Amino acid sequence: MQVFRAGVKVFSFAVASSFVLYIARFVYLQYEYEMDDEFAQWGAADMVTLYMDNHNGEWPRSWDDLREFYDDGRSRIGGWSFEKYQSRVFIDFAVTAKELQELSFRPGPVGFNVIHARLTYTVYNPNETIRQYFQEKKQAHAEQPSVEATD
After folding, report:
1. N or C: at which end does the chain have fewer Cβ atoms within 10 angstroms?
2. How far apart are CA 111 and CA 100, in angstroms?
3. Quick one: DSSP state of residue 144?
4. Kindly report the CA angle at 133 between 132 and 135, in degrees rounded to 5?
5. pLDDT, tens digit (0-9, with 9 covering 90-100), for 87-145
6. Which of 69, 72, 61 lies closest to 44 in space, CA to CA?
7. CA distances from 68 to 51, 52, 94, 115 (A)
8. Are 21 and 95 in contact (CB under 8 A)?
């Protein structure tokens, strides 16, 4: 019985230590990377919307599609390689603009999570930027005067 109790104590200590280390790592990453990750997400949302503006509203298929905007300084982050940028920001390239456009008009919070930081939790929500992009495009299209055919 004593061996069992000792084992439980060791196990409990290991679990508690792991939890403390996990929390410490989370706090460190938040402190060290949060601001950069917010700017990087902002830049990613900007690059995606620029891509859609220049490619008939199509969602990019990969990071390669965004490379030209990164190279032009649109990432909002300085001193990072393109590879580091990709390692810090997730973009879901499997979705389509049509899917996101449909979700952009549903009431309530943003119904998709296609851009986010990989290492931290940040206040900035790049998905709200994408939703606003689709809403503004729809509003601009609705406000365009219709051309009537004349005889």
Report:
1. C
2. 8
3. S
4. 60
5. 999 999 999 999 999 999 999 999 999 999 998 888 889 999 999 999 999 888 888 77
6. 69
7. 9, 13, 20, 18
8. no
Residues 54 and 60: their CA atoms lie apart, in Å, by 11
**What gap in Å lies between CA 141 and CA 17, rounded to an integer?**
57
Question: What's at 3, amino acid-wise?
Answer: V
**What's the rounded mean pLDDT across residues 72-88?**
93
Q: Amino acid identity of 4?
A: F
Residue corresponding to tokens 């940040």: 122
**103, 124 Cβ separation under 8 angstroms:** no
Among the listed residues 48, 50, 149, the one whose alpha carbon sits nearest the alpha carbon of residue 92? 48
Angle value at C-alpha 16, between 10 and 21, nearest 5 degrees: 125
Could you give the CA distance from residue 25 to residue 22 in angstroms, rounded to a whole number?
Answer: 5
Q: Which of 48, 56, 29, 73 is nearest to 131 (CA)?
A: 48
Query: Which residue bears the tokens 């290492």?
Result: 119
* CB neighbour class for 33 (10 Å; exposed up to 12, middle 13-18, buried from 19): middle
